[in-house]
Amino acid sequence: MTVLVCAGCGASKSAVTQPPLPPAYPVATATDAQAQAPEDSAPPVDTAQQSPPTPAAPKPRASRHILSSADQSSFLALQRSLGGRIGLAVSGLGIGQTVQVVGGLREGVAWSTSKVPVAMAVYEAGLASAQQANLKAAITASDNAAAERLWASLGGGQQAASAADAQLRAAGDQRTRTESRQLRSGFTPFGQTSWALTDQVRFTAGMACSQAGSQVLGLMNQTVAGQRWGLGAAGVEAQLKGGWGPGTRPGAGGGYLDRQMGVMTIRGKPMAITIAAAPTNGSHDTGVAELTSMARWAASHVNVSRLPSRPRCN
Hints:
By secondary structure, the chain is α+β, with helices and mostly antiparallel strands. It has a single domain, classed as 3-Layer(aba) Sandwich (Beta-lactamase). Helix content is about 35%, strand content about 15%. Helix 3 packs antiparallel against helix 10 and helix 4 (about 115-125) crosses helix 6. The longest helix is centred in the last third of the chain and has 18 residues, at about 285-300. The N and C termini lie far apart (about 45 Å).
């Protein structure tokens, strides 16, 4: 098994010690959001006119959805061409943003994407200085040994799971519960968390609304080259965290599930996105290729015209 595969499903790599970059996005506040004019607001009226203006033909309005019905049909065609099950969820950045999901795969084991709320909990607990090397290794290189040290620093077991859950809730995911028990020998407890794509994209969208989330987004901007497939190979700026391993359900084995969460910036607009693939042949390599196909599809199909340029956190 290669190092790339093991990083997501049990083996560890040595930690690196460089300090994290600054946050990928500034933390948005309620004041920031309130100061933004709605993007579909009407232009000001010229009260100096002497006569009523001639009514103009209404201009077509951009879709309020990131994915049109045609886009959704296109994605289903992509799913048929790839075989197996795939899924994609998208949202603007912020709390309470509209989520759209498409594809037959809607939920599965979190695998190493679960390291994101764990890392956020370490920042929130004020442990980042002591855990700096482990934070970087766990998020940028998906190092399991480093992630387990982060988990232990939070108290392990249910105490650590509750700390991670608090970050899920703060960022907008009100349903997911971090797994506290080791369901499979050789695999991390938190990696066996069941995480729906819609809940994960809500969480990803809300990460920029906290200091802890912004710090982890900064680390997700440094993902190592060997793991920059999928969202990292779509031809646009992306902060990402991947997860992969044998099995789609908590505690059970099987063919590989590959998934990613992250933020893509398309035509100057950031968008939260989660993608997942369970290939027919159960191969990790096939899953990686399918994630890349989905990410490139998203970069060329999504409508970002109505998305906020900054996170809406009020």
